[in-house]
Every structure is written in C-alpha cells, then in structure tokens.
C-alpha cells in the first residue's frame, strides 16, 4: 500500500473541497484532494444548474399560457423530450467545465478512491493508499433523504439526484415534501403540463418563518398547486405504469392514487457513510455527526474540519465555498485556528412567487428591540405592469438605531431585492441611509423603497430622511 504525507487531506472534490484545497495551496501548504466518485459539484450535476434549466423552460411555458392578460393570444405546445434534452445538454456542459477545472489541479494533489478514517488524521483510500496528514477537511456533501414509506421501493422513486435524467416529462408526478426543492421542481413540472400533487406531513409551505409572508406565499401557491398537507404517507406499491400511493388525511380518512412518477424531496442528509468517523476519535451524536463550529469549521479542538453540505449549517453553494475556504485555512494553521466572520445569510427559492430570506429571520429577531416595515406587491406599479402583482416584503430593523437586520419576502424579483438587502445588512446601513440609495422608476425595487419608508415611519425616523427620498411616484 502506498503512503502519502501531506499537510491537509481534503475528502470530497465538490465546491467546499475545491475551495479548501485552494486555501491550503494559497498559504503554501501541501493539500491532497480525495474524491470517491466522479468529479463535478452537486450544484452543476443535480442542484442549482439543472433545476434552474427546468424552471426556465417552465417560465417560458407559463409566459405563453398567461399572455392573454396582455391581449396576446397564444398556445404553447410542450415537447417534453426537447425540454429534457436541452436541460441535460446544458447541465453536461456545466459539469464538463467543473471537471476540466478539477483535472487542471496538479496530479500530485489529487487522489481517487473512497476514504475512511483509521485514526485522528490518518486515512485509508480505496484500499490502495494510506494518507497521513496534519489535519483533515471533510467535505463529502449530502444526499437525498428517502423517508421510511419509500425506503423499500427506493429504486422506483425519483430524487433530486435522478429526476434530471428523465428522457421525457411524466404524465403525472407525486411530490413528497413542500420545501424549496419540492416547490421549485414540482411547480416547474406542473407548468410544463405534468399533473402534480404535493404531499407533506406538515402544514408548512416553504422555509418562511415570518407568519405574514408565509400566509401570503401559502395563499399564492394554493391558488396554483394541489397541496395535500398534514397527510401521513402509509405505503407505496409499484404497479404497471407507476407507483400506487396510499395515505391518511388530516381527518383520518385513507386515500390512494397512482402516479407515473414519485419525486421524494424530503430534504438532504450529510454524506457520512463509509467514513468511519468514530475511528477519528471525535465525539458523535446519535446521528453520527460531530459538533462543528460554524466560525472555524472545526470539530471540537481536533485537527478535523467539516465544510459544505456535510456540516449541516446552510446548504447553499456560496456558503459551501466560504466554509471550504475557512476550513482549509484553519486546517493548515491548526492548532492556531481563527474565528472568521461569515457573510450575511442569503437564501432564495426560484418559485413563483419567488421566496427569499436575508440576514436575521423573523423567528430570530430580538422581540424587544426590532421593528418591521412592509410592502404588498398587489398594487405596486411595476408588478402590475408585468402582471406579477402578488406577494409581500417585510424588512426588519433595530428600533434603537434603525440599523437593518434582515428581511423575508415572497414576490416578483425577490432574487434581486434580496441581494440589495443582503448588501445593505452586511454594510450595517440604517433605514435613512438605505433610502438615500438611487431607485429607478418604474422598477420592482421601488417596492423595497416603500417598505423602507414604512419602516422609517414606524421607527419615527422620517425626520432623518431627505425630502427627495420620500417623494411619491406613479404606482408606488
């Protein structure tokens, strides 16, 4: 068996692992990137990019279906095979780019094979190499969680790891879950002509914690989607042409229906199988997870660091990239690890209406010193012009000094409004300062200005605002 001696061994060549390797190399260390599967990140293969390709097709179909609102008569003919072919072609192009980038890493910094711990900083890889490191970064990502009713028929259900390989759109689809992945993919499929039904044992729709925004979002989704909430899935039976699902409703009645395909989108879990983390000496919880400090990526005081989806903090690409950098930097400098500031939290769901959460969420607000301003998009000028006038934006500020704390929203253009707010929160802008920023007319961003004005009024800070920052415009 070969032996490799390195400064930092990095298990997993996804977004977090690649950034950890780069951080170690930049600081002059000797990294070794270990990958047990094919190169290519979760985002490129089964996450951000293929899902947005599906959503883009759905948006095109939805635009045609809604054209009559503008006096335009049109009919869409959806070619499911063409939809999936383009998705797969573009996805494969994104993946190829990532793979090429990974393969450009010097060969002596890469190793293929499944890694498992044999000690605190020693690994066996693929049965062919023993790796001895000063520190280890675990960046093995996550995998879809398949709940018990579907475990026995796992090979018959789709997950977000497999749905993008369908050769054609199914006639019907049951979606298990009402979280971000479930809503994005399920709504896209429905807008592409698939009969879609959502099932969830919970009453929640999406990740929102602000009760008012959640109420508005839920109403919007209920108008379009078939949501079977508070249902208990009893079993799934393979039959000719699909799966027969049997469930119990909130009132105790049992129902059943057959679907051509079933998408299980009940969340993802850290990839820990086969790592034998117990051999590292780390204290593990009942799920086999060690405690991880989000500011250092370190597990306790050990020379072991977790980054990306496997760490279980915020499973988003930009967060994984940051965690990888933090983990790689601290792994090389261990035991002199340093706490590093994280960016303002920012998450976006590409549903319609879009959902976004920035900074402190509603359920994280200090109750005694926060104030909320809001705007409804029902009468907002630009939203009415484009026929997307539904949704609610709520912005949070510290009532003592007017510093922006965060926001939750469901509405048009949330992906852009959320970025503006994330930048403002990270800069610790006050509400009057944010109102001095330029706002064009007519744009959706004027809705953000209205929410800030409402917030300024509630904070009794209108006197601190310039006259021109409070001027009215048509549709505001």
Please give a structural write-up:
Belongs to the class-I pyridine nucleotide-disulfide oxidoreductase family. Pfam families: Pyr_redox_2, Pyr_redox_dim. InterPro entries: FAD/NAD-bd_sf, FAD/NAD-binding_dom, FAD/NAD-linked_Rdtase_dimer_sf, Pyr_nuc-diS_OxRdtase, Pyr_nucl-diS_OxRdtase_dimer. This is Dihydrolipoyl dehydrogenase. With 476 residues, this protein is α/β, with parallel strands linked by helices. Helix content is 30%, strand content 24%. Strands 1, 2, 3, 4, 5, 6 and 16 form a 7-stranded mixed sheet that branches. β17 (346-349) and β18 form a beta hairpin. α1 runs parallel beside α8 (317-333), α3 packs antiparallel against α4 and α3 (48-65) packs across α6. It is globular and about 75 Å long.
Approximate helicity band: 25-40%
* Spatial shape: globular
| CATH class descriptor of the largest domain | Alpha Beta
Structural class: alpha/beta
Total number of beta strands: 21
**CATH-derived topology of the largest domain:** FAD/NAD(P)-binding domain
Please give the domain count.
3
Which spans of ≥5 residues are poorly predicted at pLDDT below 50? none
Q: Give the termini separation.
A: 71 Å
CATH superfamily placement of the largest domain: FAD/NAD(P)-binding domain
Radius of gyration of CA atoms, rounded to a whole number: 24 Å
CATH architecture descriptor of the largest domain:
3-Layer(bba) Sandwich
- In percent terms, what proportion of residues is strand? 15-25%
Largest pleated sheet: 7 strands, mixed
Keywords: FAD, Flavoprotein, Oxidoreductase
Cofactor: FAD
GO molecular function, one term: dihydrolipoyl dehydrogenase (NADH) activity
Protein name: Dihydrolipoyl dehydrogenase
């Amino acid at each position: 068996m070969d032996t490799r001696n390195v400064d930092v061994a990095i298990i997993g060549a996804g977004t977090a692992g690649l950034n950890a390797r780069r951080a170690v190399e930049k600081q002059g260390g000797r990294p070794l990137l270990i990958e047990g599967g094919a190169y290519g990140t979760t985002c490129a293969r089964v996450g951000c990019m293929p899902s947005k390709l599906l959503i883009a097709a759905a948006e095109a179909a939805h635009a045609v279906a809604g054209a009559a609102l503008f006096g335009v008569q049109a009919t869409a003919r959806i070619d499911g095979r063409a939809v999936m072919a383009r998705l797969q072609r573009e996805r494969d192009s994104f993946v190829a780019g990532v793979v090429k980038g990974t393969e450009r890493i010097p060969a002596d910094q890469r190793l293929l094979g499944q890694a498992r711990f044999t000690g605190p900083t020693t690994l066996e890889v693929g049965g062919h190499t023993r790796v001895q490191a000063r520190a280890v970064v675990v960046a093995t990502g996550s995998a879809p969680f398949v709940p018990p009713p579907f475990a026995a028929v796992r090979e018959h259900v789709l997950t977000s790891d497999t749905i993008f390989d369908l050769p054609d759109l199914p006639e019907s689809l049951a979606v298990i879950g009402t979280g971000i992945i479930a809503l994005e993919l399920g709504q896209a499929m429905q807008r592409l002509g698939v009969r879609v039904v959502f099932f969830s044992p919970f009453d929640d729709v999406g990740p929102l914690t602000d009760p008012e925004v959640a109420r508005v979002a839920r109403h919007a989704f209920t108008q379009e989607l078939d949501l079977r909430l508070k249902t208990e899935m009893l079993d799934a039976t393979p039959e000719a042409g699909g799966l027969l699902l049997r469930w119990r409703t909130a009132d105790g009645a049992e129902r059943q229906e057959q679907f051509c395909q079933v998408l299980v989108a009940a969340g993802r879990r850290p990839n820990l199988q086969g790592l034998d983390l117990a051999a590292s000496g780390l204290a593990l919880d009942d799920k086999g997870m060690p405690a991880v400090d989000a500011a250092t990526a370190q597990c306790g005081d050990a020379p072991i660091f977790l980054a990306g989806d496997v760490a279980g903090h915020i499973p988003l690409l930009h967060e994984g990239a940051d965690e990888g950098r933090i983990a790689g930097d601290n792994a090389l400098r261990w035991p002199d690890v340093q706490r590093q500031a994280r960016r303002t939290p920012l998450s976006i769901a590409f549903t319609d209406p879009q959902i976004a959460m920035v900074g402190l969420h509603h359920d994280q607000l200090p109750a005694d010193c926060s104030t909320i301003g809001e705007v409804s998009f029902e009468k907002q000028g630009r939203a009415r012009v484009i026929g997307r006038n539904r949704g609610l934006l709520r912005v949070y500020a510290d009532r003592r000094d007017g510093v922006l704390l965060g926001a939750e929203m469901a509405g048009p253009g949330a992906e852009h409004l959320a970025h503006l707010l994330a930048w403002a929160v990270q800069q610790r802008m006050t509400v009057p300062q944010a109102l001095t920023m330029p706002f064009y007319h007519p744009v959706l961003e004027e809705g953000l200005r209205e929410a800030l004005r409402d917030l300024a009024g509630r904070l009794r800070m209108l006197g601190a605002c310039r006259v021109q920052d409070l001027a009215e415009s048509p549709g505001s």
